[in-house]
């Protein structure tokens, strides 16, 4: 790590630099005396205009409070070129212009121009100087050349003498920090500058009061409102995202609900036969219609019960399927006789009688009841050979 050497000026040198010309009344011991004419002109009993109106000189404490140089050991300070107006007006900003010549890659005032809080500002106050508002039009200005070897810094100060009239004030040294490419930050101090301050209306024969400048726009940061707005925006975004996700969830593909289990074929057939019995077709002598409904109910039941299309199959096709049922249907002869009798009524234009209609309805009910499963639907398979044990 490279050591930093703090350069302090001697109290005598600081005092000589701080005091304006003509304000040094006598040389301390060990310092060559001035000329007799100068000594006579600065005698304690001969007050001068500067002595009558000058402000207290800047002491070593105030200078050290405003700026302390910090330079690496064995390194020369950067070159500074300074200019400050010799005359100014009370309450009007005076600009200190500093041109810093440095190496490429170095940055002047990387964090902006700052004066240490407390002692630094108090030292400026004791010197009757003040810094303008850093956000106003007289804020410090830093201009860097394109080649990166020179930076111009303009710092405005406002002289505020304690009393009206002409005053001789001294601007204390101000800090100029430079960030080097190696990461180290060095600080150099400007020279003290004297300025003669007069009242703004000193040379006006009949000064008139001037109106105040237009009010500057006040920017107040309303923390509560800002938080409410940010919270509302976040809630809005969360609500939109949540609504979109809910809509996607509502429109997701869903499995179709399972249909209700089909009713047993024998229940449907017995219900249909019950409706036919109480339809009054026999009483109305609609015998053929009665017979057809009974035949269709039995064919539909046999098809659903044993796995074929009972209404579209012929009698021969239906009997072929029924004869292959395992175990064999016990009332197969009754089924065969019923289907063949129904074909005669349907295709041979045979008109059944009232008794035949009653008998067909009773036989249909017997066929359904005799073929109802005891523990489940029967399995289909080839019928056993006749005569087998």
Description:
This protein starts with a strand and ends in a 9-residue tail after the last strand. It is built from 11 helices and 15 strands. The longest helix is centred in the middle third of the chain and has 28 residues, at about 225-250. With about 400 residues, the protein is α+β, with helices and mostly antiparallel strands. A hairpin with a 5-residue loop joins strand 11 (about 175-180) and strand 12 (about 185-190). It has 2 domains: about 5-25 and about 45-200, Immunoglobulin-like; about 265-380. The radius of gyration is 59 Å and the shape is rod-shaped. Helix 7 packs antiparallel against helix 8 (about 285-305) and helix 8 runs parallel beside helix 11 (about 355-370). The strands form 5 sheets. Strands 3, 5, 7, 8 and 9 form a 5-stranded antiparallel β-sheet that branches. Strands 4-13-10 form a 3-stranded mixed β-sheet, with no helix packed on it. It has a 3-stranded antiparallel β-sheet with strand order 6-11-12, with no helix packed on it. Helix content is about 35%, strand content about 15%. It has helices spanning about 10-20, 35-40, 50-55, 60-65, 120-125, 225-250, 265-275, 285-305, 315-320, 330-345, 355-370; strands at about 5, 70, 80-85, 85-90, 95-100, 105-110, 130, 140-145, 150-160, 165-170, 175-180, 185-190, 195-200, 325, 380.
